[in-house]
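Project standup — Tuesday

K.O.: blocked on the structure for the chain from last sprint. Re-posting the sequence here as requested.
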Amino acid sequence: MTSRSGLASLTLSVSLVLALAAGLLGALVPGATPAAAAAVAPAAPAAAPTSDRPQAGAQVARAPVPRLTWGRCDGGGARGGDSGQARTPIGQRISCATAWVPLDYDRPKGARTRLALLKVAAARPAQRIGTLFVNPGGPGGPSTQFAPQAARLLGSRVAARFDVVGIDPRGTGGSGEISCRGRVQRAYLPWEYPRTDAETVTTLRRDGQVRRACRREATALTDHASTADNARDMELVRRALGERRISYYGISYGTYLGATYAAMFPGRVRAMTVDGVLDPVAWSTGPAGPVRTPFSTRLGSDVGTQEALTAALARCDQVGPARCPLAPGAQQTWDRVVATAATRPIRFEGERINERDIYSFATSLLYDRRTVSLLVRYVADLDAAIDGRVAPGLGALQRRVREVQRRREEVGPWTWETASGTGRPAANPAPLRTLGLQPQAVMCSDSSNPQQPQAWIRAAAEADRTAPGFGSLWTWLSSICARQGIGSGADSYRGPWQTRTAYPLLVVGNSHDPSTPIHGARRVHELFAGSRLVTYDGWGHGAIGTGTCIRRTMAAYLLDRDLPPEGRICPGGVLFPRPGA
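H.V.: unblocked you, prediction finished:
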C-alpha cells in the first residue's frame, strides 16, 4: 500500500469526485430525479440582523481593504482555469486576481500575505445579484479550481446571475505555502494506520519529529492558517468587492468555513448553503470538560463510513445477484474478505491486499454513488481470489480502484498525505526534509485535542469496537495534533456557535454520507436559528450535482432566498442499476 487515505476531507470537492466517477463509470451529469412533492415555500422574512462578533468585526475593520485587479489567469497551478477551458462558455468568463491581506489580523497593518482569486463572471451581467463565494473543502482544496465546477453543478440559473468566486485558502493553491523543514526519518508512512506496536511507535516518533521541525523552521503562514483566519479573509474580500452581504456555497470542510464565518459575522449573511456538513462543535472543542478524544474521532466519520457501507450491502441483498455480485449474503462476504486479509494478504491482480487497503478503498469508493458498484465488484473478486477462483490478470479492476482513491486523496475532501516509498527503514541520520503541512496546520490550529499521544491509541481501539478498521483509519489521521500539534490556535474560533444570522442558512445532508454523516447537518440546523434542513436520501459525500430536487432547492434559495419546507427529502439515485441501464 503506497498511499495514505485522507480525512475524507474532509476537497477535491464532491464535484470532482463526480467528475472522476464520470470518467471511470459513465456520464457526469446525473439522471434527473423527481422533485420533492412539497412545493417551495415563499421566502421567509429575514431574521433580525445580528451584529458581527465585536472582536471579529473590529479586526477586519482595521485592515486595509485590498485592491483587486481582475485579468487573465496564468496558465497553470491553482489559478489555471484559463488554460483548459478558455474556449468553453464558462471559460470565457473566467478571470483572476490577487488580494493582499494581513498575515495576522491582530496586526492589520503589518506583514501581508497573498490570496489567489478566480471569478466566473455572471452569464447575464444585467441581471446579476452579486458574488457567490464557494469552497470545496479539504482543508487543502483550492477554491480557484472549484469555482468553474461549482458554476456548472449549481446550474445555469445560478451561474447566470452570480459572479462565482473562489479564494484559495491560506497555504493552498496560489495563496502562499505552509511547510516545515527539519530532520524527519520518514516523509510519509507506508500504512493507512498503525496496527502493531512497532508501527505505533514509528507513527508517534515521526509525529514528534514533524512537530519539532515546525517549531524550528516553518513558513510564516503556519501560525496563521486557522479557519477563522480564512473567514476573516473572506470578509475582507467581501468588502473589496463592495458586497453588502455574503452569498456562499461550501461543501465538506467548506461547511466548517461557512459556519465559522456565519458565527463570526452573522450580520453579513445574505444566503449560505452548507452541503455535506461537519459538526462545528465536534471539530473545534468537543463537549464541555477535559479533552480526552481526538477531534478526528469526535466527528464520527468512522461511524458514517460504517453506516454507508452496511446500508449499501443491505441494499445489495435487496436488489439481488443480477444487479449486485455480492448478493445474497453481502455483509457476510465483506466480513469474510476483511477477516482473511487481516490474517494474510490476498493476492489479486498481481498485488497483495491487506485489510487496511480494503478499508481505505471502501472509504474512497463510498464517496460517490457511482463508485459503490465498483466497490462490491472489487470485494466479490477478492472473495473469489481467496478460493483461487480468479487468476492474477492485467490489473484492470485494481487500477480503477486505485485511480479513484488516488484522485480523491489528491484533491478530495479531508485531503491528507499522498505517501510514497516502500516502507523499508530509512537510513540514519534522519534526512533534512521540507514537508507541506497545510491540512495539518489548519486542523491542529482549529481543534482542541488531547496532549498525550497515547490518547490516539485508546481512541482508535474504542472506535474500532463500533466501526472496525474505519475507527482506526479516521482516528489516526489527526495524531500529529498531540502536544499542541502544528500551528498556533491563538486566532482560531471555537465558539459560541449558537447564532442567529441575518438570513437563515440552508443545510443539506446525505442520509448515507461516509465522511460527514448527517448528524453534522442536524447539529448545524440546531445551532443556527431559523435554518432549514434538507436531506438527500442517498449515498455519497455531499449532494451538489445529484439531481433535479437538490439543484432546484439550492437555486431557489441562492437566487430568491426561498427557504424549502421543513423536512424536505430529495430522492437519491439508483445505487445498483439494472444491467445495461
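K.O.: great, moving the ticket to review. The first helix runs from residue 14 to 25. The mean pLDDT is 86.
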